[in-house]
Amino acid sequence: RVLQYFGEVKTTPPPSVGVVEEIRKSHEKEEKTKSI
Fold this sequence. Notes:
single chain
């Protein structure tokens, strides 16, 4: 399912959900670096 999802993203524009997930991940990384 994950591979298929990424394949769909390549052919079609990324869905808002995917963008939200990426933003959330970036925020989590920033929080981890700050905590350290």
